[in-house]
Amino acid sequence: MSVSRTIATLSLAAIVGGAGYWAGTVDVGTFLRRYVDDNGMAIKAEPRHEGTGAVIYYRHPDGLAEYSAEPKSTDDGRPFAPVRASEDISLGAAGAVAPSPDTASVSPERKILYYRNPMGLPDTSKVPKKDSMGMDYLPVYDGEVSDSSTVKVSLGKLQRTGVKTALAEMTTVSRKIRVPGTVTLDERMVSIVSMRADAFVEDVADVTTGDRITQGEDLFHFYSKEIATAGAEYAAEMRNGAKSNPDSGAALRLRNLGVPTATITRIATERKVPQSIAYTSPRDGVVLERMAVSGMMAEAGDILFRIADISKVWVIADVPEYELGAVRMGAAVSVIVRNLPGTTFKGTVDLIYPEVQMQTRTTKVRIELPNPDGQLMSNMYAEVEIEAGAGNPVIAVPNSSVIDTGDRQIVFLDKGEGRFEPMDVALGVRGEDMAEIIKGIAAGDRVVVSANFLLDAESNLNAALGALIADEANP
Known about the structure:
six-stranded antiparallel barrel, Elongation Factor Tu (Ef-tu), domain 3, alpha+beta, conserved putative lor/sdh protein from methanococcus maripaludis s2 fold
């Protein structure tokens, strides 16, 4: 009896010890939760449905977060359970096996290529996995990487990230080029008063440099022997019954000597030559220079007065060489001068000079401005704003839609259903709000104008992962 009792005692100890060892190596709580609920009641076993498709990996038979790409056994010799293509899983907090919300509706025919990091990091796995924060890696299916740069975003994520789109449209693109300028006289509206024959000057008008005069106003009187002789010949022709013809004979000679038309008409009417002839102002304007003095002898060609009409002036602006491509003839211009704050003068680009200054690498651009009140004075400093850009409608998108990396310019096309495709474009004129697109997209295409940098990061990641998978498939 003592021997039998001893054997029974040793057998019981071996059973208890084995049970203790098994409990220490297996999570008993996890094991029991498979068979009882929170109230300790037994859970009715559900029939297991076999998956379809190829085996894509193997999982721990107890539902633990352990996986293997190849057949494997636990430490106690039990084989890992195969998981087929239709049985994609998502690991819950307690390690339970549950269908992934992103893949529950996926058809069984789709093949999972790999799993990618949920935070967008360049990390992939051939089997389900969690990151350091406990988030599930996301499955990537066959067919989703045919264009590795295309980004697909769920509707919920679109709302959270603030992705907005707009249409590429045909419109004019313009911006302002701000450059310095200087007010100058219109050289076409400057007149020089000089004699065409030797003459004595007398009775000079009481005008000085800076005075305003009107057209036809007397400047001075003069006597010229050559002009008097030609006038006498003309008067004789008139007395002899010749018809008045300013384009022939003595009348033409008088005109060539600079005699005013009014004086020639007077000689034809009175049939005599006046003792002195009045020289009148050829235009309205300002006296820029007065050289005439009473009693002087003026030789042919001597400048006696310089008169400028300032009803129109020029502004010469210095445009940098790199901005010349955006400046066009006829472009609208706004000019502000320092002594008239708050007053803006409007004009147009009249001429782009065909020369670049060597020292400053700028080109002079001429702007014509009306100046009826004479507020703009020669040599004033001006601040010039030129409306630059294409005058005709072009394909354009908002500036915010263009991602400029320096080497390339990209816009994201909205392909619908949450898919966005990066497209290389060639830019033309960039305006204040819009950018001209020369090549890459067409009018009516929908482009992303907000949160496109997030899409660009996702696209670059997809392209990198696609290259990584290709390298792994073709070592």
